Amino acid sequence: MTVLVLGDQLTRQVGPLADRPDERVLMVEAREFAARHPYHPHKRTLVASAMRHFRDALRDAGRAVDYHVVETFADGLDAHFDAHPGDSLTVMRPSSHGAADRLRDLVTERGGTLDVVENELFLCSPAEFDDWYAENSLQHEDFYRWMRRETGYLLEDGDPVGGAWNFDEANRETPPTDYEAPEIPEYPPDETTKRVQREWSERDTDEWADPEAFRWPVTRADALDALADFCEHRLPDFGPYEDAMVTEEWALDHALLSPALNLGLLHPAEVAEAAIDAYHEREDVPVESVEGFVRQIIGWREFVRHVYRVGMPNLADANRLDAERALPDVYWDGDTEMACLATAIEGVRERGYAHHIQRLMVLSNFGLLYGVDPHELNRWFHVAFVDGYHWVSTPNTVEMGQYAADLFATKPYAASANYIERMSDHCAECPYDPDATVGDDACPFNALYWDFLADHEDELRSNHRMGLVYGHLDDKRDADELAGIRERAADVREGVRSGDVERE
Ligand code: SF4
Prior knowledge:
Blueprint: E1 2-4, H1 16-19, E2 24-30, H2 31-35, H3 41-60, E3 65-70, H4 73-83, E4 88-92, H5 99-109, E5 113-117, H6 126-135, H7 140-151, E6 155-156, E7 159-160, H8 191-200, H9 220-238, H10 258-263, H11 268-281, H12 287-311, H13 314-317, H14 330-333, H15 339-351, H16 356-370, H17 374-384, H18 390-401, H19 417-423, H20 426-429, H21 444-455, H22 457-460, H23 467-478, H24 482-498
Parallel strand pairs: 1-2, 1-4, 2-3, 4-5
Antiparallel strand pairs: 6-7
Helix pairs in contact: 3-8, 7-12, 9-11, 9-12, 11-12, 12-18, 15-16, 16-18, 16-21, 17-18, 21-24
Bound molecules: iron/sulfur cluster.
């Protein structure tokens, strides 16, 4: 009897490792898997180093751990079943679609058995979600309120604390120009992490910035420290500024906990409860901050996990707007004068991270307006982000960002420079003019935005949430402006496609 621990299930707090303290543990670090895509080196380092630290912590606690560094997962299972013929493995359900079946086949072919049990690293089980979904449509806000009731988080006598379920209106502020966000704790590479970096150095490509400037927590102790630091220093301002983008503050007041959460180093319950405790114990944590944060953890994160589960396999191929352009090189090299895009991509190149509004309203929005194939963009998010896994990047990118699947998005998240100018300081430093739509200096987002609306008029005009913008498009058409805008959009696309995105 052996507990199989996958690389994103690094927990002793819940699941089979908590329930079966005497069983042997099997872990497989498969190098071919990690080399399959041009992953950001920080992501490869994060996963392999966290796995090795987890192995060491288990051994320090007296557990027998068979840890195989091999080329393929099958090689690891070969080694295991050579040593333990006919063994029975237990594993928490993998997050990726079809992975449990593939794993069972591999184990069965080697004469073993595999018991797939609940993945307790999420708050809402598949059975619970399916019961909810049987009576509800796939809307996040409804799911979130249901989760609040299920968990009892931020409720007073059954009602939401602060008198509202969400405080979106209070969470769209931008900080003053002299605002300095609290310092971010860093977790520089120790010997284990450095060894991983050395082992991979020959395979690293030069697509990313410095592979060695690694900063993410790889142990539970450091992940708990990162959680405490967030609650202590950044939670108070998190809510009001959660949608803001500031060039010199890449992290602003964001929690930066998704890499540790998605590895299993932290459990969503303890993360949400730490923030709720801070809210109850301190005067400086406003309700809009704790509510906004809890919504991300128990609402959005859990919701997309189940959207992925119920939406696959179709979600992986969905493309209802027939967007088929190849992902332009700018996503890899960040070589553009567009300040918002350059800042977001440079952050990804440097540290495998951009916060949620950069992801949605800059990186995804540009892909949507440009007309990139949603699955190329999804692959980029998957390989480039330290917290990117198929279960999380696919619903966020394909459905939310690219409006490709008709699952829950009620309208495309398409925006012109207007939104970015309102929510960031990028436009003030950008050579493009956010108020212009045509002309060589006009912000590329603007012409692409109107062109996108014109392109998809048949699909989108009847959407009641798009009525106002189509009224504006009609105005432009009536004023004979649309042809010039579409010409400018074609020039922008050609410039982006050919890598020549500089102004004339
Ligand atoms: Fe981005 Fe346009 Fe603003 Fe430049 S002007 S930062 S390209 S939105």
